[in-house]
Design goal:
The chain is of the alpha+beta class. Helix content is 17%, strand content 31%. It starts with 16 loop residues before the first helix and ends in a 5-residue tail after the last strand. Residues 13-24 have a biased composition (Low complexity).
Amino acid sequence: AQLRGGAVRGERSSASPSRRSVAAMPPRAISIKVAREEDLSSHIGNDGFYFDLVDFDRVRAFQIPDNTTMSRLKEEIAVEFSIPSQFQRLWLFCKRQNGTWRPVRPFSTEENNLSMTSLHKLLSRTFLFLNPDGVKLFLEVLNDSSPQNLSNDDGLVFLKLYDPEQTQIRYIGMLFVKASSRPSDILPKLRSLAGFCADEEMELYEEIKFEPSAMCEAIDANITFSESQVPLCCKYLQLRAFLNEKFRLGMGISFATRKARSL
């Protein structure tokens, strides 16, 4: 017997219930955590938080459908933080093998039109330590001095200052550097940000891990950032430390420390 719609009684419709349920499945909500410089400033050096960048349990989380595009997310961020989308540059955070989270690269213009699901599939092929339960991002606020077209030679540097008299570490800013440049090239800027004298010496270190104790390795300020990659073997962090975290696109982390004055 024929049923309305042309199906024959007793015969299975060509569109199975399982396929229909998949097609009708609503978008899944995912968590997007967005860290800003304000978060770095308020977290680093407080409540025992020193050697990572940010505590993601204390940043703004957006619950959005997984079919939301990056462009749409920027509109949500614009409303929440009063930062127009054209002044936003979002960086992907990934978890490193030592347990720390680091920005690895900004999203491209083309990726802004992809859904979160598509982005996750695309990025999972390259980055092995993506958060399976959501996405963690760093929001860079663009200004007149921000480089517009980043290349593999560009790096974003986050800066921490250690005050031995107060035994305190705090965040003091970020810089863009060229991977082909030398740390010594930015020493004047680092001294200025830290409020140091123009001729004060500084030592450079790479952070290796912070558990069970903080460990770092010295870096030569006279070789390029790209050449300053060091093996996972390090020394303990010295006092009077000016700490700098370097993020070249696709690269690891480095630290810089202020040289101890003789007493």
